[in-house]
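From the pipeline queue, job 12 of 40. The input is one protein chain; the requested action is below.

Action: predict structure.
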Amino acid sequence: MSKKESINKVRKRIRSKIKGSSECPRLAVFRSNSHIYAQIIDDVTGNTLVSCSTLDKEVKAIVSSTNSCEASTIVGEIIAKRSIQNKINSVNFDRGGRLYHGRVKALADAARKEGLNF
């Protein structure tokens, strides 16, 4: 089994247990080799409520490298600020099949620090 197949298998298992609703949407994190993306999703309606990534202009202006823990921390802070502005205070965290360490953990810790509950 390749690494991609293994990640997809874990992602499926996580998604069977974590569902986002309008009261408590899902914070989905996708990490590629060069970028990190975060979305807050309402799975009932299928809408993305808030999103942020290292491709955003405000993130690119701050960081020098988009594949670092520093960039992930900034994305976590921005997604938390945007969600609180949209009156979303608590979410279910979906790590997207990746291990909870490194850039995924940096994003989650920064979001918690800015006031997002999960």
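Job complete. The longest helix spans residues 69-85.
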